[in-house]
Amino acid sequence: MSISVTEIRKHVRMFFIFAKNSLLGYMEYKANFYSGLIMETVFLLSKLIYLFFVFRLGIEINGISPDQMMIFTGTYTIMIAIYTGLFMDNFYRFAGHIRNGTLDLYMTKPLSLQFMVSFRKVNFAFPIPNLIAGITMVVLAWRRLDIDPSFLHLAGYIGAILSSTVVTYSVLFLPQILAFWTVKSGSIFDILDKCWDLNNMPMYIYPKWLRRLGLYVVPVLFITNMPSVYLIERLNVVLGIWIFVAPVLSLLAVRLFWKVAIKRYESASS
Amino acid sequence: MKALQKYKRTYILALQNEMEYRTDFLLSFISAGFIILVQCFLWTAVFRSSPHEIINGYSYSQMIIYSVLSGVVSKLVSAGFEGEIANDIKTGGLSKFIAQPIHYFSYRICNFFGGKTVQTGVVLVLFVILMTVFMNIWDFHLRGVQIVLFLVSILFGLLINFLLFYSISALAFIITEVWGVYIAFNQGVYLLSGAIFPLNIFGDTVSRISSFLPFQYVVFFPVNIINGSLTNHETVRGLFVQAVWVIVLMIISKFSWDSGMRKYVAVGG
Amino acid sequence: MSIIQVERLSKSFNYYEKELGFKKSLKNLVKRKSLIKEAVSEISFAIEQGEMVGFLGPNGSGKTTTLKMLSGILYPTSGQVNVFGYVPWERKKEFKMQFSIVMGQKSQLWWDLPANESLYLNKCIYEIEDKPYNLVLDELTEMLDVKDLLNIQVRRLSLGERMKMELIASLIHRPQVIFLDEPTIGLDLISQKRIREFLKYYNQQTKATVILTSHYMADIEDLCKRTIIINQGKIVYDGELRRVNELFHAKKIIKLHFTDEVPRQALTDYGAIMEHDGMNAVMEVDKHDLQRLSKIMLDRFPILDFTIEDIPVEQGIESLYQKDGVKHESLAEV
Q: How many angstroms separate the CA of residue A183 from the nearest CA in chain C?
């Protein structure tokens, strides 16, 4: 399949229409929106408790100061906003599309099927508290740590966030694809979802083996740590290369797996 | 005695149902395991980095035991029926309880404890394994009294948690999309019960405030009995406070359900 | 050159035998019996541009599977399909731009939004310019009489109205081939009729090729000159529905009403008795004997009313299904 500029433009445009439709849906069900907002705010608070605790303790933990910890927690919170906003709803729905056969309908549309199942819904309730709190934390810590607010630093940080976003998508979408073979892909996804909790703390509190596993094999730790590691200047050569390679590799893996799965697809009967 | 027969039946039904879904319960332990893992690594790093041996009154071993047990206990006492209640209210399933001579509260509590009986079995096995492991690594002792008091406090904790969630469930009478509130409340109880951090590490003010609230008697208090960080006197006093809370919450739940029911009957279900 | 050509198309599914019981599930973990079900086997047909063809068959006969292969949702096990020059399961964009599939039980509309949002979405997906979009939309809403429903949330529409919106969403890009899978399922008789009328008119107006599957004989009788009857994965009939009965020995049905009770035994010599209750009887009679036998019966029995009818199409089709009914699902162990 050749990728042309017009095709990319069309898909970007489609994304905004999907987002608009999701927003219209929220206007229809305001209670759902507020419900989601309240819920996510409480979850945010429970994550902030870790940070609060570290500040109370006031010591460096494995060489990470409380202010640096705030960078990590802030980035983690921003990544949660991105994940819940763009991906979560779609991933939860995916197995249902196969079961109900709606995937059949999507398949006949002149639009990338993977794109359609990945971005059909945008969540507006969950990311709001996370985005506000996350950005506040990062800005606050940025100041307190006297990091030069240069364009280069900012661009680098945003670049690292983008790289993490791609990795998040790949790591969490991959187990979803298993739904093509087994209905019970739920538990695998659940466990991976819980793995995400490992990001509550910077990877430096974990032993080396777990850190390596989480960075290079199942890159869940990659997601929140890389942008923060870049900001607190702990990026070494290997990690510096990996930050570029990981998103490309993981996205390729997901795409390949998707192609194999879709070829073997035997649509739900009925 | 005949009147009690139907509640016994409800209890047994819930028990059988839970047996069916025991793998789900085990799986939820795996997910709790990740939080416990983060906690253990965090405390290991903290104690290694800190110049002190004791942090906020906890030694390293006490802290690890706390983290593991609080994870397990919070899973055990968790409610999880609030969604079902909301559904009963929304779809009118509650009406059949008004018509039948079975009290909804009794039905729910039998159902709750029926499910918990199986889970307690699983937890007890886990508990024995963990305790043996801890006693072998660290200089850690358990007295028989401690275990008995722990079990009593767990029973009270279960009751308190049941009543908390039963009371809040009545919100479904006034809010239509209540799921967000439920999950938020669930997470709030989780935090305030001390399931993540022991509550006294946040300082005296937090400790004092939380001692006036029912939440810490759900997880924090029972785990501290095992942990050995409470004196006998403190333990007995804690059990007494638990009993008081059970009574207070029963009154609150009666009040919230009575006013909810009035509304429900008024609209006609 | 036909617009759709199907040659020796087959599709078989793998499935595993499920046995109940804990011990058996354990055994299954180690060694599972893999079974093959042939959903479609070696069917061939060709369809001309502008034709409207009905697929008829009992549940699980393979009509939906065939439709899914024609639209590229499923890969076939073997065989060839050519739909206006494309192989459907290559799923080329150019192919997708020119056809449409409507499945009665699956919706492409956004449940919580007004239908026109979903239509606009399809406008973008199919890259339609504003002008032709508005033109086609006007025309279709006019024809289906749903113009004032466009701004109402889909979940508030009735089933029939929803189906009309579903049709508009599928036709907005003016596809040259349309697959309809049970488009009238669950609808009331009036809605069914409206949709049938629309499809007929649309087919005449646009010369689009339409393939339609349905449970309702009326749908197909009314719409399709040509019917392909599929049973157990094979084509058992391809032609005009009305002429299905010519496949059988030509028979007629005689309905009798008596003024006095006539015992069953008295009738047995004249043909096969389908129904009998003393005062009334329904009989199946060979065509060439019809004249002779009816004369005798009119003389002998106290007849009040006497009618001769063709065998209903449903009955003919049922006999068609039963013809291979003896053969069971072809299960093979692998």
A: 14
